[in-house]
Amino acid sequence: MSEESRDPARQVEACRVCGGADWQEVVSFGPLPLANSYLDPADSFDDEPRHPLGVVSCRSCRLMSLTHTVDPEVLYRRYFYVTSDSETITRHMRAIAELCVGRFAMPRGGLVVEMGSNTGQQLAAFRDLGMEILGVDPARDLAAIATGSGVETLPDFFSAATAARIAKEYGRARLVLGRHVFAHIDDVGDIVRGVRELLEPEGVFAIEVPYALDMLEHNEFDTIYHEHLSYYAVSTLSTLFERHGMRIVDVERAAVHGGSIIVFAGRDDASWQERPAVAELRRLERVSGFFDDATYTAFAGRVEHIRKTLPPLVRGLVADGLRVAGYGAPAKGNTLLGVCGLGSDDLEFCVDTTDLKQGKLQPGAHIPIHSPAYGAQHPPDVYLLLAWNYAEEILRKERAFLESGGRFIVPVPEPRIVSAEDL
Ligand code: TMP
Ligand code: ZN
């Protein structure tokens, strides 16, 4: 058997939104390990699996897609990514629940179904507003944790078949929600058709995805990892929904995860009026070059610039005798480190608040992950802010570190050093 045929990563062929096959190559990062496959120090790393990681853009609908799709059974059945309980995300989840219920006049007792519901934090915010809730998540351990905490969660992949089963057993939904999960789905047409059938006639499908425009403009290349199959803008999602009997009725931009959009869609026979924000963002996409090859070439050039400048910046500090560590061990950090070729020779350790990550090593880079308390006891001179999407919260929390002379490197949109004087 050839290497190629043993690889559980399948090469993308037709566009999952429009069916086209005229792809513009955007970036190609070579084979990298799965970003959430943290390693045990006792593991042997010789055979750490790596899969091609690259992005192409569909010249007809401008979906940005990974070049290779890793089998979801490999990615998600034993999945330990736990939704952040940071202040930023907790506040955001409460705001989403209020936004959905308020803007779409959802009656108390209506059913909210969430796909990729993780440990049930978002659904609990809906329950607090008087809604009935049901989660769906293929990560069996996480689904069991959620169900144990009182958020009933089916341990399944969401699909049209799952949607039909839910409609039969639990009734139709007022809201179907997917926060940062839609970008992980390959057969999006099946999902949209399934959601359409599961919704009440005036029900709403709300998804939150990283906004492709923000990713392109702010050089957020580390949003690219094997779980994120697709990078969406409003125009692309309009094409998708319209092909499957739904239409976008509203959209909100949100600052989380480097810039996201929350897109609200209704059935095409529902009475929702499209709000002006939809046309406004589609226009912004047109005028900012989202449909032009040159935009993607320029993005790739800026990513290459970061790849060339960040490693010498870090290594220069280390050569000056300074100790550098990573702040946060997010999945995106593994892309950043992998693309830049930074590893345990450069960063002494990373600190991360997630219990499950502490004591493990980062995939690929093999940097040990410790608790924030360890970081406070062994403060480095400089932290590379891998969790840059929480920069505001973290710089506030680490004031004492900064005031005692500590510095942060913020890697995107381009590497810069932040010290106490910059606050
Ligand atoms: P996320 O972007 O997927 O939410 O991951 C953020 C990671 O950063 C997660 O592993 C937790 C970590 N983190 C910290 O270690 N300290 C912090 O203050 C915050 C906000 C996140
Ligand atoms: Zn397409």
TrEMBL record:
Keywords: Methyltransferase, Transferase. InterPro entries: Methyltransf_Zn-bd_dom_put, Methyltransf_Zn-bd_dom_put_sf, MeTrfase_14, SAM-dependent_MTases_sf. Residues 256-413 form the C-methyltransferase domain. GO terms for biological process: antibiotic biosynthetic process; methylation. It comes from the Bacteria. Residues 15-76 form the Methyltransferase putative zinc binding domain. One of its GO terms (molecular function) is methyltransferase activity. This is SAM-dependent methyltransferase. It comes from Streptomyces silvensis.
